[in-house]
Amino acid sequence: MKRLFVDIPKLLKEESLECIDCEYLYHEGANRGVFSIVEIAEFGAYCRQCKESFCIEACPKDALEHSKTNMILRHNMRCVGC
Fold first, then answer.
1. What is the pLDDT of residues 27-55, one digit of tens each?
2. pTM of the model
3. Please, which residues bridge with residue 73 across strands?
4. N or C terminus: which one in the chain shows less Cβ crowding within 10 Å?
């Protein structure tokens, strides 16, 4: 099975931050660039994808939602990290 390894500390080094901001803030569409990989990598490690998603109901900022494929998605710009 092929896997994608994302070295998050290396990705977030100071010299790469400008590139990440550009990709995330200025490129529209489904693929928002490098920062989307960081979102997926960080959240995927903690989310159990429960069938009854109490986290979605409890989220005070509506930062979590189900996707069309029934995966739980987090909107980082809304999330306060509670």
1. 555 555 555 555 555 544 456 777 788 88
2. 0.43
3. 65
4. N
CA distance 37 to 55: 22
Handedness of CA 27, 31, 37, 40 (dihedral sign): positive
Find where tokens 């900022």 sit: 61
Name the one residue in this structure whose structure tokens are 């509670």.
82
Strand partners, 8: none
Q: How confident is the model at residue 9 (pLDDT cuts 50, 70, 90)?
A: confident
Let me know how many helices (H) and strands (E) the chain has, helices first: 4, 2
Which residues share a beta bridge with 64?
74
